[in-house]
């Protein structure tokens, strides 16, 4: 497989990143929110404040996947994963797994060595299980309007060594 690079979204790639959501048929509401979040990430109006941090997967200079993480407003020890999308022709090849690893690395670098938790609302699957995520809603209580998705939560303990921060 071609080399895959996972990097932070940059302003020159905003439209290309949005196009990944459009070809993946995300609805109008989602497109509105993801564009606003990306613009806030790239040129937020409060100095030093960023809510959602976007990363992109690049192959041969082309974006094939996008994903984000954000500190939760509930608590500073809680983080959210969101907006994971991979171009249809690149799915099932581990791209989102790479983007999950990078997002967890960035959250640890941002948070420091203290304990933190990460939540995501999606389908329960081995990729998340292997990374310590457990479902917060029992199978029988997942409503149909969530399309089978549920809240997954993972807890990360004290880090013995904090990795260097690269921004
Ligand atoms: C979900 C999606 C991002 C997975 O990307 P991917 O690069 O194919 O995932 P990987 O190959 O790294 O994943 C390894 C496994 O974990 C599953 N997985 C990965 N990310 C997932 C996610 N966010 N939610 C549920 N399952 C996921 C995949 O189904 C895959 O299993 P499979 O190959 O047997 O299907 C991709 O299918 C996609 O863009 N779907 C449309 C958008 C979407 O539904 N996003 C999630 C919204 S919550």
TrEMBL record:
User: What PROSITE patterns does UniProt report for this protein, alphabetically?
Assistant: GNAT (PS51186)
One matching Pfam family is: Acetyltransf_7
Which parts of the sequence belong to the N-acetyltransferase domain? Answer: 4-149
Q: Which InterPro entries match?
A: Acyl_CoA_acyltransferase, GNAT_dom
Q: What is this protein called?
A: N-acetyltransferase domain-containing protein
> What organism is this sequence from?
Sporomusa silvacetica DSM 10669
């Amino acid at each position: 497989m071609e080399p895959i690079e996972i990097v932070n979204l940059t302003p020159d790639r905003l439209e290309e990143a949005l196009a990944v959501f459009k070809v993946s048929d995300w609805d109008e509401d989602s497109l509105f929110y993801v564009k606003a979040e990306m613009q806030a990430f790239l040129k937020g109006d409060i100095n030093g404040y960023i809510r959602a941090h976007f990363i992109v997967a690049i192959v041969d200079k082309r974006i094939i996947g996008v994903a984000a993480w954000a500190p939760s407003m509930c608590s500073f020890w809680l983080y959210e994963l969101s907006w994971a999308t991979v171009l249809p022709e690149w799915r099932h090849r581990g791209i989102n797994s790479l983007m999950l690893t990078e997002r967890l690395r960035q959250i640890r670098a941002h948070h420091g060595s203290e304990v933190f938790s990460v939540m995501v609302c999606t389908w329960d699957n081995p990729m998340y299980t292997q990374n310590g995520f457990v479902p917060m809603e029992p199978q029988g209580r997942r409503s149909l309007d969530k399309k089978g998705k549920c809240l997954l939560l993972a807890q990360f303990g004290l880090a013995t060594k904090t990795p260097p921060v690269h921004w």
